[in-house]
Amino acid sequence: MKKYVCLNGLVLFFAVLCLISITSAQSTQSRQTQSQPPQYQQQPAPVSLEKISANIYQVKGGSGANAAVYIGEKEILLIDAKMSEDSAKQMLEQVRKLSSNPIAFVVLTHSDGDHVNGLPGFPAGTKIVAHEETRRYMTEAFKEERQKASLPQITFSDRIQLYFGEHVVELLYFGPAHTSGDAVVYFPEEKVALLGDLLFVGRDPLVHRHKNGSSFGLVKVLRAVLGLDAQVFLSGHAEKGTRSDIEAEIKFVEQEQAKIKALVGEGKTLDEIKAIYKIEDRPLQQGRPRFMSLPEVIYLELTERK
Fold first, then answer.
1. Of the residues 16, 30, 49, 126, which has the fewest C-beta atoms closer than 10 A?
2. Is 159 part of a structural domain of the chain?
3. What are the tens digits of pLDDT across the range 262-303?
4. Three-class SS of residue 237?
5. Residue 217 lies in a domain
6. HSE toward the beta carbon, residue 43, CA cutoff 13 A
7. Around Cβ 293, how many Cβ atoms within 10 Å?
8. Domain, as residue range, for 75
9. Residue 302: inside a domain, yes or no?
């Protein structure tokens, strides 16, 4: 009898040990996965449109980030351009099912490839609008002539207004956050704002230091976004969000900043902090880029390293 009890105890011990190992591995994988944008994690679904308001649709599926469409009385506004020409063309096909109005502008929220690489798939001469920093990054990245033909022709520094009849769309810049060229596309009458990669739901925010992004700037920008009279927030890699989602991201980033600051105060090195967070120096998938995690970004900001 004692032998049986001992055996059960041994089995229970190894079962618990196994569970801890699996949980630890899942935690590591979770943090590693969260540092990679979703477009590098799964095969794309077909392009589809989701109605958000009377005139605004979110473009889902295809390769790259979510995009959006505003159907005006006489013209159409597109926000972002997907990651491939094929997906951009699929987006146009879906838009044409809603309206035959001409496309007045394509507005870019920022310069990441999953938002802009589909631009050559749009008709020649399409007017493209972006923040001046976004155009600078795209100029550095676009090497082919057909890509260069898709560089933004209209740029702004702080804000610009686009009019569709009596309706206005505001493009706003609140400072460096995800990159140094993030545009917020605000529809005041619809109470809808498009945020690009400023908002992430259910995963760590992504900050591109190589494009002069800032986690502290992200908090500042998100607070400015909350100052808008908007109730629905669309983003590149999530379902439509609410004000509570933005508040939750601000809280999470500030908590991470406080944790990293405490670890820096204890004299922890970057490698030690990465070990604590179980961050690995490898991409999630071979051949894909590895994006710097939020703890790494915060550490480098706090220690003023590039």
1. 16
2. yes
3. 999 999 999 999 999 999 987 666 666 789 999 999 999 999
4. coil
5. yes
6. 1
7. 23
8. 38-242
9. no
Q: Is residue 11 part of a domain?
A: no
Q: How many domains does the chain have?
A: 1
Kindly report the pTM of this predicted structure. Answer: 0.86
CATH number of the domain where residue 105 is located: 3.60.15.10
Class of residue 65 by CB neighbours under 10 A (exposed 0-12, middle 13-18, buried 19+): buried
pLDDT digits (tens, 9 = 90+) for 46-104: 999 999 999 999 999 999 999 999 999 999 999 999 999 999 999 999 999 999 999 99
170: Cα separation from own chain's centroid: 20
pLDDT tens-digit readout, 157-209: 999 999 999 999 999 999 999 999 999 999 999 999 999 999 999 999 999 99
Sorted by sequence, the CB contacts under 8 Å of residue 270 that are 6+ apart come out as 296, 299, 300, 303
Residue 56 bridge partners (DSSP): 70
The DSSP code for 43 is P
Closest listed residue to residue 186, CA positions, set 206, 207, 151, 159: 159
